[in-house]
């Protein structure tokens, strides 16, 4: 029997959670004997260019309507030539563009994944997603958490009847060295509690609150390290200078995925004050490594983390300052919370996620 061929389509190449999901699903499919590839619509950063199963249609974000149309036409021709047995798409623009194009190209099995609350999508993306999903452009539609599912409850029944919840799963990050060596590799102090945050430097991730909270804590207490890049980097650098904490905050930039394990090994606490999330890949990775997690008090965080974390308002600097300081000063609290986090993280298994995707991709409804 010929190998089934599955194409995973995602909008831009960079080190984000959705990108990691597509890569890890593809790797596991290949391990299970499928032919599989990841297609990025365009390359924002060269994060995954070394992967043999990765392709990209455009070297940069299309800057004009003709360029965008040319990208869509190119995707159509790639799909017609490749003739995959199934297409899985990740992120709202990949859902709209990838699923509609695969539908027109005659690909029978098409699975969309909704990886953020519907209200966080741009208005035009919400409109097209609702339209294409209601018309049958998605043969199945996955919500990555019940919190995301609830945000779509007002959508038409024809959209919802094709939809199902499949929790994200992921591989545990691998640390290649011990804590002291990892700190040396990243240029981090060995005598302070390290608070780590991983995520794009964007409004959603709310890193400015972390910097503000840290600026109010004794310099001898802890050090904040943020891994990620994005449009707010210059603003955050200016905030760090204004708060006189250049010696207490490190912006690492975007890390290659294989270095995340070492960063988490160097860390004592994981903190992420996001304004919204759909699942929280970075948080679950930290939980897998046994770190205590301090996150925003969002429905999705309580759903995913359960009683294994601390939940704080997205706008209360005082609560973040006091909670982080308390954890930094009390190792036994960190160890207790970290063990609960490690146990909770076992729920988010990559094999279960892949099995769910395959079942819903190829099961007729």
UniProtKB/TrEMBL annotation:
InterPro entries reported for this sequence: Glyco_trans_1
Pfam families associated with the record: Glycos_transf_1 (PF00534)
Swiss-Prot/TrEMBL keywords: Transferase
Signal peptide limits: none
Domain Glycosyl transferase family as annotated: residue spans: 179-344
TM region positions: none
Superkingdom assignment: Bacteria
Keyword Secreted: no
Molecular functions per Gene Ontology: glycosyltransferase activity
Designated name of the protein: Glycosyl transferase family 1
Organism listed in the record: Chloroflexus islandicus
């Amino acid at each position: 029997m010929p190998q089934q061929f599955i194409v995973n389509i995602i909008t831009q190449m960079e080190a984000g959670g959705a990108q990691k999901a597509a890569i890890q699903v593809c790797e596991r499919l290949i391990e299970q004997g499928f032919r599989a590839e990841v297609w990025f619509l365009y390359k924002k950063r060269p994060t995954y260019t070394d992967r043999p199963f990765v392709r990209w249609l455009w070297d940069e974000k299309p800057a004009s309507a003709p360029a965008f149309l040319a990208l869509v036409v190119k995707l159509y021709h790639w799909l017609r030539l490749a003739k995959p047995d199934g297409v899985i798409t990740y992120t709202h623009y990949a859902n709209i563009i990838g699923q509609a194009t695969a539908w027109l190209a005659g690909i029978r099995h098409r699975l969309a994944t909704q990886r953020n609350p519907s209200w966080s999508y741009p208005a035009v993306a919400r409109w097209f997603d609702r339209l294409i999903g209601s018309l049958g452009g998605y043969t199945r539609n996955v919500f990555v958490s019940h919190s995301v599912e609830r945000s779509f409850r007002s959508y038409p029944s024809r959209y919802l009847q094709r939809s199902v919840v499949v929790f994200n799963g992921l591989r545990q990050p691998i640390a290649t060295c011990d804590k002291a060596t990892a700190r040396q590799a990243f240029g981090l102090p060995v005598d302070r509690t390290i608070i780590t945050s991983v995520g794009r430097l964007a409004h959603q991730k709310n890193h400015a609150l972390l910097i503000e909270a840290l600026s109010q804590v004794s310099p001898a207490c802890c050090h904040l390290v943020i891994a990620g890049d994005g449009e707010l980097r210059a603003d955050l650098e200016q905030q760090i200078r204004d708060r006189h904490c250049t010696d207490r905050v490190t912006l690492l930039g975007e890390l290659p995925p294989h270095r995340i394990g070492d960063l988490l090994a160097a860390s004592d606490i994981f903190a992420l004050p996001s304004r919204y999330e759909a699942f929280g890949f970075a948080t679950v990775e930290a939980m897998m490594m046994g770190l205590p997690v301090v996150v925003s008090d969002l429905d999705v965080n309580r759903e995913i983390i359960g009683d294994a974390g601390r939940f704080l308002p997205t706008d209360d600097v005082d609560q973040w300052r006091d909670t982080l300081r308390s954890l930094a000063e009390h190792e036994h609290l960190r160890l207790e919370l970290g063990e609960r986090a490690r146990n909770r993280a076992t729920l988010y298994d990559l094999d279960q996620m892949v099995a769910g995707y395959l079942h819903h991709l190829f099961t007729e409804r």
